[in-house]
Amino acid sequence: LLKQKANSSNESLSTCQTYTKKKHLLQVGNSQEVPAINGNGNVVKAKSTNKTDDGSARDNPPLAKPKSKKVATDKNLNGTKSDGKGCKEKKKNGNILKEKGDIKHKRRKAEEHAEQQPKEAEIWFDDVDPKDIEAAIGPEAAKIARRNLGLETGQSKQSVEQVLVKEKASEGLTRAIAMDCEMVGVGPKGEDSIVARVSIVNQFGKCIYDKYVKPTEEVTDYRTAVSGIRPENIKTGEDFKTVQEEVADILNGRILVGHALRNDLKVLFLDHPKKKIRDTQRYKPFRQRVKNGRPSLKLLCERLLNVQVQTSEHCSV
């Protein structure tokens, strides 16, 4: 009986050891501590080992904690959150800062340029030759001085011609024509006006008619500073009746363009259909653009055409 019990206990112990070995082999893959049995049959804790490529055993490192599914967000230096797009946001912020820097740089450059330009109020020389001013201060100052003195340079005349006249256009009559007259004063104080010169251009700016007119009354004020008329101009001029007939023939059936045309037609003793008149002084869009109820021709040319006219003596052409 004692032998049978001993054999039975040995078989139980063998079965237990076999089970424990199998369990140990299954759990080796996991990095967890597994129970083991020593030679005395006591259960002890043993660390699992992994074999390297060269067959040597090494301790298995502890497993890292699993990451949560949500991506952690952190704030960058600009205070914006980065969730995988941080690089793009940083790049965008960098571009914005660069643009702001460029704007500040351009503004500073413009201010420096404006400070370098001479102001019109500072050009107060009255009896100094503009050439001397140009040599001493610069071309901009000389330009201001010439304008203040009413001097028109050849360059400005050329630019006006280039803007207002089409060089290779027709020189004949066109459907639309423009007219202007220069007047001189008659009467005790020269307050009344008579025609002294008539000029007509076609729609391309080409002059098609320009004649001085003999006075029909004694002239008491030639108004040379404004009209540009001198006694020798009108002494040899065309007879008024002839000029009146020629102008009436040109205007017949055509669109008439001009500035304050009622004054020009009045001194010529002529009339023209209202529907065929285009008066730049009375055109509402022009008055709205320059914010003036009765704008001068000089103001309209400066604001709308960007050319200077009537800077000294007027020229009807």
Automatic annotation (TrEMBL):
Species of provenance: Grus americana (Whooping crane)
Family, per entry: Belongs to the REXO4 family.
Renumbered residue ranges of the record's region Disordered: 30-121
One of the GO biological process terms: DNA catabolic process
Residue span(s) of domain Exonuclease: 175-317
UniProt subcellular location: Nucleus
GO molecular function: 3'-5' exonuclease activity; nucleic acid binding
GO CC, any one term: nucleolus
Keyword annotations of the record: Exonuclease, Hydrolase, Nuclease, Nucleus
Residue spans of biased composition, Basic and acidic residues class: 109-121
Main location: nucleus
Annotated protein name in UniProt: RNA exonuclease 4
